[in-house]
Every structure is written in structure tokens, then in C-alpha cells.
């Protein structure tokens, strides 16, 4: 009799909890989140309730895309809406400069003046309009690095810390971020040996978004910026990249009704158009 009463009492407690919404037998994932209120990541508030049909739709690539590798991801979602060749290593080209900016930001004082050497000026491409012997502010160099993709600025920042040390810091940062398939051999991206996967680049973007948003704020500025979406009201930030071995690369982060939307294309014949197609494809579904 006592056992029956205990069982009845326990059943009433469970029923009461269900009615209050504290426990759900059909939503075990939600129970985990409710038991860990200290989790504040945006990812933690997303519920994995997509049906099989919805999952299939999200895997359909839109037509007209020329890129070899593609990532489209709602920042709040657990899985990408579209991932093509996500684990394929690809030359980063000037996407490299996002890591160059991070290492510079974390290891060089913001009030530092850096003298442009003849060797730095001799780096391929003259973007940035720097001159030998000129003393430039940290802000000027990082701005040119990100907005016009100045190789001279990348070389000067690396020289300031010492090129070998700078590359060590870049690769160590990649390791710290668990970018397991990423390697850096120069700070500009001119080397085709600078390679990463889409999934690693997503980790790099996340680090900037959460830890160094000022880097993306520089890339938002329209004036003198070669990113095709700079100046758009919904553009959060990104970076261009091109070398012959890579073709066109582009990272773009948008504000999609309060939800960041990340689009990365690698090896594209028309990186801006590919990104537009993917943006329209995602936002129209």
C-alpha cells in the first residue's frame, strides 16, 4: 500500500512538472539546456527540431554558383544551411589577413608607430600608398590591411614583431582556435601554401565576431574598401581574397533580421555574385 502511494505521489510530481513546462519527455535536448542555465552561447538557445524534409531542403545548392567550396550558416543554427566541400583545404589568399589583424591587435600596441621598410614596400602590390621610411600608425596599417588588402601593411606589421615570431603567433592562434587544417606561411596570403578549410574559417570568423568586433567594424567602412558589400546597412564584416591558385575567395557576414548570416565562397569565378545568389537563396526560404 505504501509503495502504491509513493508511486502515485511521484507520478503527480512528474505530471505537475510537465504542466509547468519544466520537463518534456519528447524534447530531451531542451531538458539539457534547462539544467544548465549558465550556458549563454547563442547556439545554446537553438532547438534541434527540424524535420527530415526541412533538412533535405537545406542541402539543396542553388544554381549558378561558380565557387568550389561554399558555406552558408545562420549563426544561431547548429548546422550550416549549405556546406559544399567543407573539409577541403583551399588557398586562403588574402583571407589570411584576418589572422594577421588578430595577431597584430593582440601583440602590437594601438599607439605604435611603424616605419615602412624598403623590403615591405617591395612586397607584391602597392595598395595603401605607403612610402619607404614613412612612419605610419597602427590604425593606418590595419585599416589598409583589411580595406584595400595591402600586402605592404601585412609585411610591415610582421617585420615589427619579427617575421618568424609573427608566423609562429599566427599558427599558434590557429591551433588555439582548433583550426586543425590551417597553416600560415606568410602574413599576406600571397603564398598558396596558406591554406584552410571552410570549417576552420568559420572558427576564425567566430573569434573575430566575439573577441575582436573592432576588426569587422573596419571592414564595414565603405570608403576605400574593396569588399563588394562594404557600406551595406546589413553588412557586419568580411574579407576578400584572390591569387591565381585560389581564384576568388570571399567572407561576408550579414545581419539577417537580427540573426548573423555567414556566407563564405572559395575558388569562385564571381565571388560577389555567388554571395548574392546564396544570400537571396537563404533569405527567400
Number of helices: 11
The CATH superfamily of the largest domain is identified as: DD-peptidase/beta-lactamase superfamily
Instruction: State the shape.
Output: globular
Return the CATH topology of the largest domain: Beta-lactamase
**Poorly predicted segments:** 1-60
Percent range for helical residues? 40-55%
Radius of gyration: 23 Å
Q: Which sequence of SSEs, written as H and E, runs from N to C?
A: HHHEEEHEHEHHHEHHEEEH
Strand content: 15-25%
Biggest sheet, in brief? 5 strands, antiparallel
What is the domain tally? Answer: 2
Strand order of the largest sheet: 2-1-9-8-7
Mean pLDDT: 83
The count of strands amounts to 9
Q: Which CATH class of the largest domain applies here?
A: Alpha Beta
Class by SSE composition: alpha+beta
Straight-line distance between termini: 58 Å
Label the CATH architecture of the largest domain.
3-Layer(aba) Sandwich
Question: What would a concise description of this structure say?
Answer:
The chain is of the alpha+beta class.
Please tell me about this protein's structure:
It is a single chain. By secondary structure, the chain is of the alpha+beta class. It has two domains: 2-39, no CATH class; 52-113 and 161-284, Beta-lactamase (3-Layer(aba) Sandwich), CATH 3.40.710.10. Helix content is 42%, strand content 17%. The chain has eleven helices and nine strands. Strands 2-1-9-8-7 form a five-stranded antiparallel sheet, sandwiched between helices. Strands 3-6 form a two-stranded antiparallel ribbon. Strands 4-5 form a two-stranded antiparallel ribbon. The radius of gyration is 23 Å and the shape is globular. It starts with a helix and ends with a helix. 40% of the residues are buried.
Amino acid at each position: 500500500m505504501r509503495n502504491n502511494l509513493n508511486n502515485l505521489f511521484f507520478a503527480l510530481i512528474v505530471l505537475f512538472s510537465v504542466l509547468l513546462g519544466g520537463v518534456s519527455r519528447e524534447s530531451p535536448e531542451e531538458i539539457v539546456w534547462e539544467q544548465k542555465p549558465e550556458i549563454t552561447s547563442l547556439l545554446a538557445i537553438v532547438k534541434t527540431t527540424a524535420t527530415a524534409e526541412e533538412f533535405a531542403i537545406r542541402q539543396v545548392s542553388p544554381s549558378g554558383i561558380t565557387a568550389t567550396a561554399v558555406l552558408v550558416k545562420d549563426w544561431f543554427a547548429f548546422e550550416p544551411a549549405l556546406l559544399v566541400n567543407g573539409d577541403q583545404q583551399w588557398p586562403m589568399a588574402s583571407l589570411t589577413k584576418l589572422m594577421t589583424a588578430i595577431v597584430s591587435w593582440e601583440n602590437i600596441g594601438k599607439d605604435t608607430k611603424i616605419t615602412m621598410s624598403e623590403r615591405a614596400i617591395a612586397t607584391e602590390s602597392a595598395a595603401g600608398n605607403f612610402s619607404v621610411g614613412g612612419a605610419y600608425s597602427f590604425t593606418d596599417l590595419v585599416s589598409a590591411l583589411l580595406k584595400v588588402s595591402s600586402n605592404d601593411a601585412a609585411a610591415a606589421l610582421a617585420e615589427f614583431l619579427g617575421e618568424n615570431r609573427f608566423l609562429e603567433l599566427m599558427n599558434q592562434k590557429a591551433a588555439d582556435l582548433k583550426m586543425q587544417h590551417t597553416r600560415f606561411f606568410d602574413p599576406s596570403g600571397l603564398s598558396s601554401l596558406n591554406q584552410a578549410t571552410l570549417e576552420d574559417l568559420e572558427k576564425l570568423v567566430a573569434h573575430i565576431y566575439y573577441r575582436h568586433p573592432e576588426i569587422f567594424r573596419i571592414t564595414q567602412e565603405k570608403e576605400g574598401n574593396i569588399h563588394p558589400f562594404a557600406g551595406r546597412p546589413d553588412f557586419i564584416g568580411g574579407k576578400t581574397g584572390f591569387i591565381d591558385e585560389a581564384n576568388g575567395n570571399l567572407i561576408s557576414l550579414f545581419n539577417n533580421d537580427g540573426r548573423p548570416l555567414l556566407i563564405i565562397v572559395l575558388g569562385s569565378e564571381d565571388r560577389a555574385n555567388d554571395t548574392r545568389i546564396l544570400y537571396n537563396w537563404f533569405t527567400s526560404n
